[in-house]
Write a structure and sequence with these properties.
The complex is a heterotetramer, with two copies of chain A and two copies of chain B.
Chain A: H1 7-11, H2 24-32, E1 49-50, E2 60-65, E3 74-78, E4 83-88, E5 95-98, E6 105-114, E7 117-128, E8 133-139, E9 153-155, E10 161-166, E11 172-177, E12 182-188, E13 192-198, E14 202-207, E15 212-217, E16 223-227, E17 244-246, E18 251-255, E19 260-265, E20 271-272, E21 276-277, H3 278-281, E22 295-298, E23 304-307, E24 312-320, E25 329-336, E26 341-352, E27 354-357, E28 365-368, E29 372-376, E30 383-388, E31 392-397
Antiparallel strand pairs in A: 2-3, 2-31, 3-4, 5-6, 6-7, 7-8, 9-10, 10-11, 11-12, 13-14, 14-15, 15-16, 17-18, 18-19, 19-20, 19-21, 22-24, 23-24, 24-25, 25-26, 27-28, 28-29, 29-30
Chain B: H1 9-20, H2 23-35, H3 44-54, H4 62-66, E1 84-86, E2 97-98, E3 103-104, E4 109-115, E5 120-130, E6 139-141, E7 169-179
Helix pairs in contact in B: 1-2
Classes of the chains: A mainly beta, B alpha+beta.
Chain lengths: 401, 181, 181, 401
């Protein structure tokens, strides 16, 4: 494997070492230089293997790259050390989720038999076991090929079902029975997209008219889809694709371009709480879509993270005009999603595209820029450690959405 | 999937042969086995001995003089004298262990590196871990005494994933085989 | 290969409908056709008109004020008000021509941009060229009035390669469809 | 398609332009501002198509990326403008060559049906016609998967045959009849590698013992392989994989790590000229493999280019120790391959990994670094223009090797 090494690396790596300049005199001189003077023992030979995979830890972050910009692959980083734990192969435009056992990884992905041509194959690939190896694939009827979006694929909270958003030829969700390893149903959701699971087998989707589609299931496993009221104005201030939801409680925080948070308790009959403004929580005027209004707004590739136990919403914020919802955040705002108060504003060392927070007692906050991952203390904003990464597309934590 | 019917046998054989047989015949047979090609009569150890003659009287090499033995995530770790690729030690593995999600190839190319602690030369098997997308961490390029591709047993440009389920390159290990003396 | 049975018909229809039918019904039908999905009642032009109300009295937008009409390889070229990707003009194509080695997708999302020369708004079809590896030239991100993925007809994150032989994204065009008045 | 745009790009691309702020008064004001005062005509609608491919020009450079570091693809750049002309899809670890018609592109590549797994398919893909589109594939019995190497694939000078180097399970060359679109022969070359075509149907390969394997063919199309004498010492100073050869004359300039050029006239019975030293041509002591000898040496990914009409050899040179043959060049040396004289030493703006020269009356010189392509005047060393590129792996020019 040939790499173009960077200068810093090259300087340490000059010249021939295959030469065996070994002789009694030389070796003796080397030994004499050792503290203690005794010749060190001859190193023992090794057997090559695979480092066992211990399961996703509470502080591990799993992320994939931004397709087109970088190669595929699902990468695991230990937040406690900022070191890479493992990498699992994936196609471009893949999505992924961990089973509740924290050991089984599902990857929703698409291949063509000849790279960009030939026969298309949409599959849910299964990885697990002590070496995180491939354990087979479940054929899917289709998938949406798009830039990475968190909510194109999700599991039910108990891990029994997978939900995969498909778009071709019509918007639908493939419900995958993960125990039986087959697609159990294909549920059409006309005019809607994405999937937010709730309860045992239900899911909701966002609709182009500002409503939700709710799919509930009867005892026979038949899905029925109905629409809620319109709860946001898609024309002037749509809800972001990358809104957060908690699969365990069913709470979704649908957040708009202008920073309005619409809390919705997902259920067969969803309950809509009153929306509140991130900007107002910070003592600012609410953001609007008026041309020229430069103010703080949420933005990025994955601009939100949620910590259900403490009701904390983390938002990547930048100063910009309306419709700048993909601009990366220069700050992370920490908000109390119950009291609608701003708790903290943390600087990030470099504008960040993704934010994530672990779901444990002593959580870590992750901010990901184009090339760097920073591990932060969510309570103090301190940067604890950092590592270089490939340009990120999606991120998942243990027990998170 | 076309693949060679080789397995960990390759590595075990390396070690066994290195210990028991005369260097020339052992490594000649090993080379043939590793790349499953009939006619590669000469191997890195022979090359190294030839180079040795040219450098007689010099202590070590530029690489071994600057090498260290405590940090296997740095390019100047002593075993990496001939490595070319992402260090598995930075990818969730080690010098002799693949990260989860990838598989060790039973084939490799062979180098020998001087350990600064004892000034001995050890045989190192540079084995690729295959199957996962490229790791992209700790990319090192130590090409000393690396040979052209028409001498595959000492070439680091070949994707050494023969015998695994996948030719997707992930990272490279530097497995200690034994003394090269 | 699963693919939609759509072709250049989509683009021709856009133009024909835009000229002859009432805006709402024409574009509603167009949207359904482009994405082959049954229920997308509202389209960018409607959104734009709504936004128009909010910005009444303002001359143009920040983008159109800074836009130019002479260099279609720069991100601030007037037609690129909503483009997201590599400009085909930098890849061997043009605003309405794919580079050799790639194919134009018959599907697209639709925006409208103001031409600074005549202050008129034109309908623009943002069409991807597909089949060749990503061009990697002139990457632009003009996301204004771009909609979430659950409103696909105005979403630039979808790989708009439906109806071509390949979903390999190469670059994006900004094809002039006609006046948006 | 979502891209993370860089700051320079983003600054030009601020805010909403889908809004249609059109009214009589505004439009009139805009027209009044036009020189001449007349309202400009309404722009006409367009039809989308594909820019016709005119064939590879004498000043076009075709290159592929360094696999692992970047994505696949064969990219054509016009040296007269430094602009991209076209891109053709390829797998990782591909090689390619142009037919003598300068319109048909052959790509030797490998796919798996499921990305990294499934069924392996080694193919020679054919691209051509006015849109450079796929015209089918020829199945290959196997290919070497390695970092890009110029001489793993080549055509006969008349374009009738393709030669593809295979390694698994044994070194062999697949001879492809490009007219019949099938593999005509698989020629084993034990202990040897790479392919350097000569004459109508012959080819030579470099061997691990320092000799050449020469494959010639009889009237029945049967290949016979014989070995030449050993003409270089593979132990101390091997010939580089990336030595240049001229397929038309059969002249190969096999060049060693230490900069010794071995001119060989490829034929059924090759003729070996006396080797000469690049360093000696520059008035320096010849480079050696002695540890610690820091001197000028050739190096890089593709360190040599050759212009047969003027016998000029272009070499990427750097100062370094022995075995630093992959270090990029800070200078390009221009050598007369007949008189063995150094003609010029040109600086490159940034250390270059690849060099290439066009084969026409008014040639252009190309130097490629990790991210940049410089177009240079081979006679003056002047940098004429530059463009950003993906990290390069291989490069080909019209009529070149």
């Amino acid at each position: 494997m040939k790499r173009i090494a960077h200068e810093a690396v090259k300087s340490a790596a000059r010249i021939a070492a295959l030469s065996m300049v070994i002789g009694g005199g030389l070796a003796a001189a080397a030994w004499a230089a050792q503290p203690g003077g005794a010749p060190p023992p001859v190193l023992q030979s090794e057997t090559a293997g695979v480092t066992p995979f211990q399961g996703l830890t509470a502080h591990d972050l799993t992320y994939s790259g931004l397709d087109g910009v970088t190669t595929g692959g699902v990468r695991i980083i230990d937040g406690d050390t900022a070191r890479t734990v493992a990498t699992v192969f994936s196609s471009q435009y893949a999505n992924f989720a961990w089973a509740p056992d924290h050991r089984t990884l599902y990857i929703s992905e698409t291949y063509w038999t000849l790279g960009n041509r030939g026969t298309r194959e949409d599959v849910l690939s299964i990885y697990g076991g002590p070496t995180l190896s491939n354990e087979g694939e479940i054929a899917l009827p289709g998938r949406l090929i798009s830039d990475p979006k968190t909510h194109t694929f999700a599991l039910s909270a108990d891990g029994r079902y997978g939900y995969d958003y498909s778009f071709q030829p019509a918007p639908a969700v493939s419900v995958i029975d993960l125990r039986a390893r087959k697609v159990a149903a294909s549920v059409e959701i006309p005019g809607c997209g994405l999937v937010f699971p709730f309860g045992k087998r239900g899911f909701a989707s966002l609709c182009a008219d500002g409503s939700l589609a709710v799919a509930d299931v009867n005892a026979q496993g038949k899905y029925a889809v109905h629409r809620t009221k319109r709860f946001f104005d898609v024309m002037t201030d749509p809800v972001m694709d990358e809104s957060v939801s908690d699969p365990h409680s069913g709470l979704a925080l649908f957040t708009t371009y202008d920073g309005w948070v619409h809390p919705v308790h997902l259920a067969d009959t969803p309950r809509f709480d009153k929306p509140w403004s991130i900007e107002k929580a910070a003592g600012l005027s609410p953001a609007t879509s008026h041309v020229g209004q430069i103010t703080w707004r949420p933005g990025g590739q994955v601009p939100f993270a949620y910590e259900p136990s403490r009701h904390r919403l983390f938002a990547l914020m930048h100063e910009g005009p309306p419709w700048s919802f993909e601009k990366p955040g220069s700050e992370i705002w920490v908000l109390d999603a119950r009291s609608h108060r701003l708790l903290h504003r943390w600087d990030v060392p470099e504008s960040a595209y993704l934010v994530a927070v672990t779901q444990d007692e002593h959580p870590l906050l992750f901010a990901l820029s184009e090339e760097w991952l920073w591990v932060m203390d969510p309570d103090t904003g301190a940067v604890l450690r950092a590592t270089k990464i490939v340009t990120p597309g999606l991120a998942r934590v243990r027990g998170g959405q | 999937m076309k693949r060679l019917d080789v397995d960990k046998f390759g590595e075990r054989l390396t070690r066994r042969l290195a210990g028991r047989l005369s260097r020339r015949s052992a490594l000649a047979r090993l080379g043939a086995l590793l790349v499953a090609a009939p006619a590669f009569p000469l191997l890195p150890v022979q090359r190294a001995r030839a180079a040795d003659a040219a450098t007689a009287g010099q202590k070590g090499t530029d690489f071994s003089r600057a090498a260290q033995t405590h940090d296997d995530t740095a390019c100047n770790y002593w075993r990496y004298c001939g490595i070319d690729g992402n260090l598995c030690s930075c990818c969730g593995g080690s010098t002799h262990s693949c990260p989860p999600g990838s598989q060790p190839s039973p084939t490799s190319w062979i180098g020998s590196c001087i350990n600064p602690d004892d000034q001995r030369a050890y045989l190192i098997a540079y084995r690729d871990c295959c199957g996962a997308n490229e790791c992209n961490k700790c990319s090192c390029l130590n090409t000393d005494h690396a040979m052209p591709i028409y001498r595959p047993q000492a070439n680091n440009h070949i994707i050494w994933c023969f015998g695994t389920q996948s030719f997707e390159y992930h990272c490279s290990m530097a497995v200690l085989v034994g003394l090269a003396e």
